Amino acid sequence: MPFSLPVTLPGPLRTLVEHHLAQWLGAVRQAGLEEQLSNLGEPCLGELERVLAGSDFVAEQLRRDPHMLWRLMEEEHLHRSLRSGEMAELLTEALTGVETEEQMAQALRRFRQQQQVRIIWRDITRQAATMETTRDLSDMADACLEQAYRWVYDQLTGGFGTPVDESGAAQHLVVLGMGKLGAQELNLSSDIDLIFAFPTQGETTGGRRSLSNQEFFTRAGQRLIRLLDEVTLDGFVFRVDMRLRPYGDSGALVFSFNALEQYYQSQGRDWERYAMIKARVVAGDQAAGTELMERLRPFVYRRYLDFAAIEALRNLKQLIQREVQRKGLQDNVKLGSGGIREVEFIGQAFQLIHGGRDRSLQQRPILAVLDMLATNTYLPDEAVDELKGAYLFLRDTEHALQAIDDRQTQMLPTDGLGQARVAMIMGFDSWEEFRRQLELQRSRVARHFAEVIADPDEDDELDLAPHGQWMTLLTGFPEPEQATEQLAEGGFSDPARAWELLQNLMRSPRVRSMQRMGRERLDVFMPRLLAMACEQENPDLALERVVPLVEAVARRSAYLVLLTENPSALRELLVLCSASPLVAEQIIRYPGVLDELLNAGRLYRPPEIGELADELRQQMLRIPEDDLEQQMEALRYFKRAHGLRVAASEIAGSLPLMKVSDYLTWIAEAILQQVLQLAWRDMVRRHGLPRRHDGSPCELDFTIVGYGKVGGIELGHGSDLDLVFIHDGDTDAETDGPRPLDGGRFYTRLGQRIIHMLNAQTPSGVLYDVDMRLRPSGDSGLLVTSLDAFARYQRETAWTWEHQALVRARPLAGCPALGDRFNALRAEVLGRRRDEAELRRNVNEMRRKMRDNLATLATRGGLEPSAFTAEAPFDLKQDAGGIVDIEFMVQYAVLAWSCRYPELLRYTDNIRILDGLRDAGLIPGEDVQQLQEAYKAYRAAAHRLALQKQPGKIPGDQFHDYRHHIIRLWHQWLPDAADA
Description:
Belongs to the GlnE family. The chain folds into five domains: 75-300, Beta Polymerase, domain 2 (2-Layer Sandwich); 307-347 and 381-457, Nucleotidyltransferases  domain 2 (Four Helix Bundle (Hemerythrin (Met), subunit A)), CATH 1.20.120; 468-593, Four Helix Bundle (Hemerythrin (Met), subunit A) (Up-down Bundle); 600-830, Beta Polymerase, domain 2, CATH 3.30.460; 836-977, Nucleotidyltransferases  domain 2 (Four Helix Bundle (Hemerythrin (Met), subunit A), Up-down Bundle), CATH 1.20.120.330. The chain is built from 40 helices and 14 strands. Strands 2, 3, 5, 6 and 7 form a five-stranded mixed beta sheet that branches. Strands 8, 9, 10, 11 and 12 form a five-stranded mixed beta sheet that branches. Strands 1-4 form a two-stranded antiparallel sheet. α32 (743-759) links the parallel β9 and β10. The relative contact order is 0.04.
C-alpha cells in the first residue's frame, strides 16, 4: 500500500509540503527503506508535515540522508531534551575512528547537520522552548570546538612537541566564546565569535622541531578555524568570526594572557567592555581560562558605580538608533527598532554601570540579567516582563526565519510563501495576525529602550547629523559587501578601494598602538571625516589623501580633536587635500599647520610684505636668544603655515599668479632676514665683530643677493633659492672677540652658518634648498665674496650668461647701504655698451646648450613648430617657445639696450621689464602683451602642476599660438638663431 501523508496545511504550504515529501519518498525508496515508513507513528507524521512546510534545509538533509529520520527516531532524540553533557558524548561517538583531517572535517559537518535537523524539528514543532534551542546550539558549538581543538592539539604535538611554560608545565589554548556563544544563546545560523589566548610565552619540547608557544597556538588556531569554517561538499560546522580580538583582523590570532590584559588595560574601549560581558571559556584549558577571566574582570566591571560608562553607552545607543534608520533595517527583527539588539542593550547597559558593585549582574544570559533587574529594582517588574516576553517572541521569530534555509538572516520575508511559513511556525493563522503581534512586542521594546540612560537634555527627535550613518562602519564589524554597499551609497565611485583604505588605516601599527583615549577620539573623528568626504566633488580622492594624515597623527590625537571640534577646519582640509597632493603631503609631514585651518578668513588672506616681516619678527622676539632649536622650529613653522595660506588662496582662486609668487618671495625674504641676523649674532658672540678697511668694526656689512626666481620675484611652491653672499669687510683684519678670526674666515663661516640653517634637515623639514653656483667662479669660487672682488669679476671675467643672470639679481636681506651699492654695480655692469652681434651669438649658443641638455627630445636642437603634437610633451620651461625663451629674449634686450635706456634696469622681474621695453618703444605693445600673456599662462600651468606634484610638462598640442609667437619673435630678435 503506497505511503501517503494527509497534508492539512492550506494553499501554497500544501504544495510545498507535497513537493518536499515527494523528493524525500523518492530518496527513501532508493535507499530501500520503504517498508519502514509504516513505523512512523501518526504524531511523527503530523510533525513531519509542519517541519517540511517550515524548513527547506531539513527537507534537503532528509533527502540527502534518508536514514537520518530513523536514526533520530530510534535514539529518541526528536522527542526529548538532551541531558547535560550528552551533546559532547554524541560527538565523541561520531568521531570514533577519525584519523585524518579530512575525516575529522567530514565527521564534524555530518554531526552538525544531524543535530541541526533535530534542533529545528523540535523548535518548529514547539517541543523545545526558545532557550532550550539556543542552549542546544551553544552546546553543539562548545562540543565541536572542544573536540576539534583537542584533535588539532594532539596532531601538532606529535610533530612539534608540547608547549610548556618556564616550569615545564604543559599549556593549552583557551578559547573564549563571545556574544551569543558566550551567553549560550546561539541562534540557528549564528556565527561564533572567538578569541584565542594562552597562558605564558615559552617553547615546545619533545618534538622534531621546536616552536614558540605563540607560533604553536597560532597554528592550532588556524587549523581549528579551518576545521569548523571551511565550506566543503558536506557544508560547514560554524562560521568563525575572530574580529572581536584585540586589533581585529590586523591583530595576532592568539595572545598571551599578559598581552591580553595589557591591551585591555591600556587600549580597551567601551564597546570592548560591552562585548566582554558575554565572554565565556568554551574550549581548551578551563582552569587557565577561569584565571584569565578573573584577570580581565576589572576591565569589564569597574569596582565603583560607573557613571563614566553612561556617556559611552549613550553614544552606543545613538549608534544603534542611527543604524536602525538605515535603509532596509526596519524589517530586521534583530537590528530594527524594538529588535533583539535593543533588549540586549538594556540589560548590558545596567551591567556596565552597576555590575562592578552588584555581582548579581555579572552573568551572561540576557533573561537572567533581566530577572536581576527586577529583583534588585533597577526596572519595574512590568517592564521586565514585557522585555522578556518580547525577547522570546523575537528569538522565536529569528529561529523561524533561519530554519527555512539554514541561512543567517533576521529579515522578515516579503514574499507570500515566506510570510505564510513564518506565520505557521509562529502559530498564527495569517501573516497579518503575526505582524500585529510582532509590532506590539517591538513597540514595547522600543519604548523601554528609549527610556534607558536617556539624556535629559536630548530632544525627542534623534539628531540626524550627516556623520551618524557612518558611526558603525569601523566599529560595527560589517561584512565587506555591507561596507562597500554603504560607501557606494555615500557617493564613493570605488567603494572597494575606499574600504581597503579604511581597513589598512585601522590595521596600521600607529593606530594599533594608540592608547584608549586616542582610539576613542579616532572613533569619534572617522564618521565625521567620511561624512564630509562625501560632500566633496571626488570623495574617493579626498579620502585617499586625508587617510595618510589620520595615520600620521594617530599618536598625537589632539589633532583629531581639533578637526572633530572644528568642522570648518575639517572641511577646508578635505578641500585643500583634494585639490593638491602637494598640500596634502605637506600637511601630512607637518601636521602642526592644521592650526591655520581654524580661521578661514585668515587662511585665504595672506599678509602683505610688511605684515609678514613684522609677524615673524614678533614671533622670534618671544624665543630666548640662546634657544636656536626653537628659533629654527619657529622659522620652519612660519614657512609651512604661510605657504599653506598661499596655496589655499591659489586653489580657491582668490590670489592671482603674480600675487602668489609675490607672497612666496616675501616669505623667503622675511626668513632670510631672520636667518642672517641669527647667524650674525651667533658669529659675533663667538668671535667678535669683523673690521672694515678703515679699521672700524663692521655692523652687518653683509648682503644676501637673490638670483633666478627669488631675484625675479617669481618663486613657486617648492622652489629653491639661488643666492650669492657679498660683504664689505677687511678680509685680513681679525675680529675683536675672545676667539678672533681673520675677516675672510669670519665671512666664510657666516655664509656656511646661513646655508646650514636654511637647508639643515630637522624633524620639521628644511627651510629652503640653496644653490650657490651663480657666485663668481661657481662651485670653485669663494662662498662669500667682497663687493670689490665681485665687481672685478663682473667687469673683467664674467661670461655673458652670468650677466644674463645678473638681470634678475637683487638684494634680499642684510645691510641696506651695501644693497644699494650692489644695485649701482649691477646697473653699471648691465648698462655697458655691447656688440649686439656678439651678444646674439653668445645668447644663442647658451640657449642651444640648454635645449640640447634639458629640452624634450622632440624639440632639441631646433625651434620649428612642426613637432608640436599631442604625442610630444611640451616642457613649459625648456622647450622651444617656452619660459626660458622668453627669459633669454628679455635678458638679451636688457643687455643690448639698457646702455641707452637705463630705466630697463629698474626691475628684475620679466613682466615689468617687458613693460619697460614697451614704454621705451623698443617692442610693439602687441608683442609685449603676447609675451606677457604667454609667460603668465606658462607659469600658471607650472604652478598647477607643482600643486599636483607633477613635472612641468603638458601635452604638446597645447599653447600652440603662444609658442608660434615666441618662436617668431626669437627669429626676429636673434636672427642668427635660424639654424637652431
